[in-house]
Write a structure and sequence with these properties.
Helices cover about 30% and strands about 25% of the residues. It has a 7-stranded mixed sheet with strand order 8-7-6-9-14-11-15, sandwiched between helices. Strands 1-2-3 form a 3-stranded mixed sheet. It has a two-stranded antiparallel sheet with strand order 4-5. Strand 2 and strand 3 form a beta hairpin. The radius of gyration is 22 Å and the shape is globular. It starts with 7 loop residues before the first strand and ends in a 6-residue tail after the last helix.
């Protein structure tokens, strides 16, 4: 329950402010309390993502998304009992309150369970040509371009390893030897790495037909040009809690109309809106797929990820979307590559150094 007071927030704060507090502290929860310290509700990462999916603006009061009736516990000294209560209620955080509902602590499942290691496989799509980044990719595969003095692909692998994911398959094609020589079997990165060698161009999903392992766990798939601070453990947990066969991570893209928009009701003028901004969800290039979904990928064929999801929707499989609220960038062209290079120190170097200092993987 260390530093639990850092999680306390007032009901007058905006969602955006609470989001910054959750990201800053290590508790992954915010406790909404009144001036006397009495519990009003809780806000977790999942509450914020659900708010985003429902279109609730981040400038709204935090009370719009908080859980006003969270499960709570009294202060207990028996660690095993706390873990059992957390698991029984299928939650990762519990406010600790006294008899008058004053908050006196927070119990976290991640803090009670040490040595987390996921059994999920991670497939990284790293076989693309990277034509939009020529001439940088004339002699170098795009995932091996350096951002922050290391290849993009290395940052992706290290992000997963710090969160307890250590089993990888990397799909390779263009200048694959540079990737296989650099990463080898993954041992020096604290990982187990295998390679899916594409015999030809197979699209964004085709190489999944080469996945050689039997597994009962969901498989995470990520494009090899994505840098993000997404908590992959939360992504998998969301996928499993929603009993999805496939989940696609999405991020918000804002588009501003460069003109004044005329509002009309049939042939009647209603008003004007000057250069409005519209927000849409776009594909973030990160997926979670159950083994059943992998079977939909045809053998030895060119197949895109969109086609896979369309196939799943046609047979009415449960497919979910998961909003990415953390830092995310698709290094598809020169502009985004330069931005990633600029962002690296602030977004990735500090977390990498902190994890190295701690000597243990960050918990999801």
């Amino acid at each position: 329950m260390d530093n639990w007071k850092d999680t306390l927030v007032s009901p007058g704060l905006r969602i955006r402010e609470v989001l910054a507090i959750i990201d800053r502290n290590s508790q992954q929860i915010a406790i909404v309390a009144d001036d006397d310290g009495k519990l009003l509700g809780t806000v977790t990462d999942g509450d914020i993502r659900r708010g985003i999916l429902h279109g609730i603006p981040l400038d709204s009061p935090v009370t719009r998304i908080m859980n006003a009736h969270p499960v709570t516990i009294p202060k207990l000294n028996d660690r095993k009992s706390v873990v059992e209560i957390l698991k029984a209620n299928k939650v990762r955080h519990l406010p600790v309150i006294d008899e008058e509902r004053h908050v006196v602590g927070v119990e976290r499942l991640d803090g009670l369970l040490t040595g987390f290691q996921s059994r999920c496989w991670v497939v990284i799509m790293a076989g693309g040509l990277g034509r939009r980044l020529e001439p940088l990719t004339d002699d170098c595969p795009k995932p091996m371009l350096r951002v922050g003095e290391k290849p993009v692909l290395q940052t992706i692998v290290e992000q997963f390893v710090r969160q307890g994911f250590t089993r990888f398959c990397i799909s390779v094609n263009y200048r694959s030897k540079q990737i296989t020589d650099y990463f080898g079997d993954g041992c020096r990165f604290g990982a187990e790495i295998h390679y899916l060698s594409e015999p030809k161009r197979m699209g964004t999903a085709g190489s999944l037909s080469l996945f050689p392992f039997e597994t009962g766990e969901p498989v995470i798939v990520i494009n090899g040009d994505i840098l993000t601070r997404l908590n992959f453990g939360q992504l998998v947990e969301f996928h499993q809690n929603h009993q999805a066969e496939a989940t696609i991570a999405v991020t918000t893209y804002d588009y501003q109309v460069p003109y004044g928009v005329v509002k009309a009701n049939r042939d009647r003028l209603v008003g004007f809106e000057e250069k409005p901004v519209y927000a849409s969800f776009i594909n973030a290039g990160i997926y979670v797929l159950n083994p059943e979904a992998l079977k939909e990928v045809p053998k030895d064929s060119y197949f895109d990820m969109n086609s896979l999801f369309e196939t799943l929707l046609q047979r009415k499989a449960p497919v979910c979307i998961f909003p990415v609220r953390e830092y995310w960038i698709d290094i598809g062209g020169m502009k985004s590559y330069r931005r990633a290079c600029k962002d690296y120190d602030s977004e990735f170097r500090q977390s990498a150094e902190a994890a190295e200092y701690a000597g243990t993987p960050a918990q999801p």
